[in-house]
Amino acid sequence: MKLDKSIAAIVTGGASGLGAASARQLAAKGVRVAIFDLQAVQGQALAAEIGGVFCEVDVTSEASVDAGLAKARAAHGIERVLVNCAGIATSRKIATRKRDSGEILMHDIASFQRTIAINLVGTFQMMAKSSVAMMTLDPLNAEGARGIMINTASVAAEDGQMGQVAYAASKGGVLAMTLPVARDLASQGIRVMTIMPGLFHTPMFDGLPEAAQKALADSVPFPSRLGKPEEYAALVQSICENDMLNGTGIRLDGAVRLGYR
Ligand SMILES: NC(=O)c1ccc[n+]([C@@H]2O[C@H](COP(=O)([O-])OP(=O)(O)OC[C@H]3O[C@@H](n4cnc5c(N)ncnc54)[C@H](O)[C@@H]3O)[C@@H](O)[C@H]2O)c1
Predict the structure, then answer these.
(1) How do 147-152 and 190-197 pair as beta strands?
(2) pLDDT > 70: what percent of the chain?
(3) 196: domain range?
(4) Which mutation among 18, 125, 216 tests ligand 1's pocket best, with the greatest number of atoms within 8 A of CB?
(5) pLDDT at 207 over 80
(6) CA pair distance 39, 50, nearest whole angstrom
């Protein structure tokens, strides 16, 4: 797909980190970008910076997504590009024994369900809503290309660490949806791809102590540092522009393989 001002895009989680970098990258190509996020102040500021629109959306709520889609499409038309970056990181073991008291604690069901609701069901909901709208669009070329949906999983989809049961389950689900959805939509000229980032320097990481950030950066074989959000955004652009990329996940990780902990 050629990226230019005739193309509308939606980026969920677009107010921060990997989503914000993707929104900037697409806008730099002339694409009309709508940012879907819960963070209104940051989202509005970025929309103003890139000449896009901000839609305050919770990807877990159908009513909220529908309102966001109505606003984005009224401003830009139906999206041909959907980038799903909205997500949360959770960390909890399935069961733990407290060192001091010996008390045994179970992973609560509510936080597991919330992680799945945002990371997995939110991604599914956005893809489902976008695919029915993209299917109404005229093809862009003789091959019948209509659109592209890019999801964000994580290397934890393949090598989830201790404490990542909920996160890894949600991201494994995102990765597993990629091929069947690409197959569902192949006859409609809509491609589906998933990026599995390794360790990227975003606000998600800023919460960690500096020593922990350095240890994580050192664990990356080459280049031995945290990834930059612009490097993620460059892959988003490249996936949009390369029509043969479809139905698979790409690790973007500097060869890191997450260890046991
Ligand atoms: N940073 C990394 O190293 C890394 C690695 C692997 C995967 N990821 C994934 O990349 C994606 C982006 O992460 P990031 O590092 O840019 O984090 P981030 O926290 O900077 O951005 C995530 C954005 O998602 C938004 N969001 C959260 N819940 C939402 C909801 N219910 N509805 C709408 N928006 C919501 C947040 O407000 C935030 O702006 C996430 O899915 C994350 O799991 C990140």
Answers:
(1) parallel
(2) 100
(3) 8-252
(4) 18
(5) no
(6) 17
With contact defined as beta carbons under 8 Å apart, do 149 and 239 qualify? no
* Distance from Cα 85 to the centre of ligand 1, integer Å: 6
CA 215 / ligand 1 centre spacing (Å): 21
Provide the CATH number for the domain around residue 143: 3.40.50.720
What is the total count of domains within the chain? 1
Whether residue 209 has pLDDT greater than 90: no
Evaluate whether residue 1 is within a structural domain: no
Judge whether 232 counts as a catalytic residue.
Answer: no
Is residue 190 within a helix (H) or strand (E), and if so which, with residue range? Answer: strand 190-197
CA distance 220 to 51: 36
Which DSSP symbol is given to 179? H
**Per-residue pLDDT tens over the stretch 12-40:** 999 999 999 999 999 999 999 999 999 99
Asked if 10 and 82 count as a contact pair (C-beta separation under 8 A), the reply is yes
Rounded Cα distance, 55 and 70, in Å = 10
pLDDT the model gives residue 214: 87
Residues 59 and 130 sit within 8 Å (Cβ to Cβ): no
SS3 149: strand
Whole-model pTM over 0.85: yes
Does 28 map to a domain? yes
From the list 54, 112, 167, 232, the catalytic residue is 167
Q: What is the pLDDT of residue 184?
A: 98
